[in-house]
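Hi team, as promised in this morning's meeting, here are the two structures we talked about. I've kept the exact order from the run log so nobody has to guess. The first one is mostly here for context; it's the second one we should focus on when we meet again. Sequence first, then the predicted structure tokens.
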Amino acid sequence: MTADATPALVEDRQTAAGPRVRERSAYPRYLAGKVAGAAVSLLAVLVTSFFLFRLIPGDPVKTMTGGRQVSAEQLAAYREEFGLDLPLWRQFTDYCGKALTGDFGTSYQFRAPVVDKITEALPNTLLLTGTAFVLYTALGIFLGTRSAWRRGGLGDRVNTGLALTLYSVPSFWLGLLLIIVLSVGIGPLPGLFPTGGMESGGEEGFAYVLDVAHHLVLPVVTLVAVEYGQTLLVTRSALLDEMGSDYLTTARAKGLRDDLVRRRHAVPNALLPTVTLICINLGRTVAGVILVETVFSWPGLGGLFYQALSVPDLPLVQGLFFVFAAAVILMNTLADLVYPLLDPRVAR
């Protein structure tokens, strides 16, 4: 090799390595941008949560007295205790300063720190939403792949039609319908499940686990029925886009069975948008469980939010609103961060 050819070879190697270097350097910038955007969104939620719920009519102090005859001095003492006698700008600065340290104040009705009430109810919500999330995600992916691979058939039409119908049904309406049919009972059909709550009480050990599972059935069925359709439709659409690709034709030409082609080649590539949807749904399910928990009297964050909203218990409502919004924002950010790892072109 001549000396003149050496610089050209080095330049070619640098040119070939260029895209890889750019991809490695692009992701940190992409990561920083998404994290900064999430931080700004959380601050916006913090500000919004303070002013939004002060538009609710009613006096929290008078509501806490339960309609009892209370003197003006006692009402003034209550307002001073909870800082409601301060100017609005002072309440706002105090709220933001404490919230940034994880202190959302003290609940008016429970007289306990908001963080403690949220921590107490959070495991119950995670049990409900986690169980429903796993079931409707698995069901949606399975039925979505089957429908796409057999598009136009009877199974595809039934699955798609049922998914669209249930996805458009309000969760609270479906929950009430299930209570009427499967809890109260209709005619000769007896009630099979509890009408609400998380436990019957008095059970221990494995009997307690079975009791909680018995109470869990109807709220989980409600969430699964309403939510699985979106995953099914997205998976089906993504897989249909992949099925016309050349690499699948090549795989079939090599003699691979259709089931093998679907599992090893088509489905993994079609799951990219589904992975994004899964992350988003996880945050959205936590935030959207309010109606279901209220209908079934489930002692989670949703039921606590409804209870706090009726007072209104401003510190508790603000803290729960921030948790719900933060769940959606953080899961959306996680989806944004995972997607470039699956498809590096996104971060370019």
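And here is the second protein, the one for discussion:
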Amino acid sequence: MTHTSTGAGPGPTPAGSPPAASPAGPAPTGRGRPGRGRSGRGRSRRADSQGRLAAALLSPTLAVLGVVIAFPIAVAVWDSLHTTSEELDADGLVVEGTRFSGLRNYADLFRGETGDRFLNALWNTSFFTVTTVVLETLLGLGMALLMHRAFRGRALFRASVLVPWAIPTAISALLWRWIFSADGVANAVLGREVLWTADGAPAKYAVILADTWKTSPFVALLVLAGLQIIPQEVYEAARVDGANAWQRLWNITLPMVKPALLVAVMFRMLDSLRMFDVPQVLIGTRKPSVETLSQLAWDEAMNLRFGPAAASAIALFLYIILAAYVFVRLLGADMIGRGTGK
């Protein structure tokens, strides 16, 4: 007797037949959703469009940087690998020519008379950098602390502090040359005649004093900007806890102003490594006691020794890069006000 199924469920499945598909269809797996690929392609096209727009906007700046930076560096490297010499032709006439010399100009920087002059200039550059940056940091910090305090005549004091920084470096060096002349103010105050602008140790002191006076306001200005963002509530809480002025300076002011101070020190270090104006105008050229690497390269170029001049300039360029790398490597985390977590 045959029974007819009246229920909604499926009947028994014959042996060997495949299972019936579920009425709801296969369960979704999360892949192949409608619109997902189309949306991803749309975002990709927008990203490509933004990249092309950014490249178009940056291309003029990159072109200018290439002209004023990359091209002169490439020319200097090319000149440093060549030597300009004068030879006699078949008719006995002097002919100037340029020939490839490889690394000879760089090797000459460390041997013979040229090497002695280069090492002396390297020492002077390093000595002036360390001495002036230390003095400028201490004076700049002191001036910033004074400018940050509230007192009568603070605006006039701030304006007077910034005057040395506003004067062009060559004009500043010329003013100090008058001060350090044989009948100048410096000798009148000391009561004896010192040859400041001749050579020797007095010339070093004159360069250090003139450069420190000129650029200490720059450090003070950056440190003052860092002091402006320190909340007064921090100092008030420290006073309540019984901290004296020295403790507030050492434990609050210096740590919180450290990023701005390190930026100022780095800028001054890079500027001092290429010092040229102050010793050139104040003391003069070819003075062994104050000659810097910039002066050495300039003097070689003025005497038409372009190969050695370019080699000296490239050596200074590499020295500045190395100094900046070491400075940022050691103190870079503090310059942005946060640690590396290592």
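Starting points for discussion:
Strands lie at 82-88, 94-100.
The chain has a mean pLDDT of 82.
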